[in-house]
Amino acid sequence: MKKVVSVSLGSSKRNHMVRVTLLGEEFEISRIGTDGSMDKAMSILKELDGQVDAIGLGGIDVYLQAGHNRYILRDGWRLLQTVKHTPVVDGSGLKNTLERQAVAYLVRQGLLQQGTRVLLVSAMDRFGMAEALAEAGCCLTLGDLMFALGIPIPLRSLDKLQTVAAKLMPIVARLPFHLIYPTGRQQEKQRPDGESRFAKYYLAADVVAGDYHLIRKHLPNRLNGQLILTNTTTRDDVTELMECGAGLLVTTTPEWQGRTFGTNVMEAVFVALLNKPWPAVTVAEYNALLQQLNWQPKIVKLRPALSEGAGRVNQPYNPKA
């Protein structure tokens, strides 16, 4: 049996373990949250090194991308360098392949089309998804400045994102990761009762896409039928989205025992199947495995009377209403 472990800076309350069979191989797949502690994550990584088949780094990125430029995050790199023997990944390879295919699938289903308004909470975290959405003709609002840095400036194009990233990332990449992304108990916080800071951008969108913890960070108390494109959702997350008024939930990774794992976990599974170090795995190999597994996005209808087609899910947001 192959063993894959995700070591996450996220909350330990979201820990999970499953056993599955993939392409004839039995897997034990588990997640260990460290409640935001870098020291605990490094200690666990050292214990696992050489003892499991592959490791995923969860709740953190090693790399962020804008255009052809890839930026290394200091804290993610520290964790990556802790592991000396076992292949270790951060999920960026699958984000660049699986999530492109997920967008294409939604286009074929008529849920994404020319002019669909998409709020992507962080395009640098999911640049493959961002490019695929742009190629599909979606009208993008990129929330990288808002959701990571709290700067209330939406970006409307990938070119603008690339320009801003070139100026800011040499500084941002050195920040402690918890300053730009919810880790540990930040993931457990109750959302405020009042209107969220960036509610108007959610309500103006047909689709809200990206990392679930970033989506939840400023999730309004009331949505108006938006499609949520994400992963790593638990049963409690699904209930929360339903209560907020989301229309559809689309998850890009498979659901096992009521939980969709992060791309870092799935990528670690792929690396274990290929029995290769992470840098040696090619896009073609990722795509070949995806074709063999035939994974499709899971679409969950959260509102019984919902009409099909993301562009018809909600009414245009009126800021004066």
What's the β-strand tally?
15
Task: Please report the distance between the alpha carbons of the first and last residues.
Answer: 58 Å
Report the order of strands and helices.
Answer: EEEHEEEHEHHEHEHHHEHEHEEEHHE
* Tally of helical segments: 12
Beta content comes to 15-25%
| Strands in their spatial order, largest beta sheet | 9-8-10-11-12-15
Mean pLDDT: 91
Helix content: 25-40%
What structural category arises from helix and sheet content?
A: alpha/beta
Question: From the coordinates shown, what is the CATH architecture of the largest domain?
Answer: 3-Layer(aba) Sandwich
Query: How many individual domains?
Result: 2
Q: Give start-end ranges of low-pLDDT stretches.
A: 306-321
Main sheet properties: 6 strands, mixed
Protein name: Quinate 5-dehydrogenase
Protein described:
It comes from Desulforamulus hydrothermalis Lam5 = DSM 18033. This is Quinate 5-dehydrogenase. Helix 1 (38-48) packs parallel to helix 2 (74-82) and helix 4 (98-108) runs parallel beside helix 5. The longest helix is centred in the middle third of the chain and has 15 residues, at 158-172. Residues 306-321 have low confidence and may be disordered. By secondary structure, the chain is α/β, with parallel strands linked by helices. Strand 2 (16-22) and strand 3 form a beta hairpin. It is globular, with a radius of gyration of 19 Å. The chain folds into 2 domains: 2-91 and 262-293, Rossmann fold (3-Layer(aba) Sandwich), CATH 3.40.50; 98-254 and 297-312, Rossmann fold (3-Layer(aba) Sandwich), CATH 3.40.50. The chain contains 12 helices and 15 strands. It has helices at residues 38-48, 74-82, 92-95, 98-108, 127-135, 144-149, 158-172, 199-203, 212-217, 235-244, 263-274, 283-293, and strands spanning 2-8, 16-22, 25-33, 54-58, 63-66, 69-72, 88-89, 117-120, 139-142, 207-209, 227-230, 248-251, 255-256, 259-260, 298-301. The strands form 4 sheets. It has a 6-stranded mixed β-sheet, with helices on one face. It starts with a strand and ends in a 20-residue tail after the last strand.
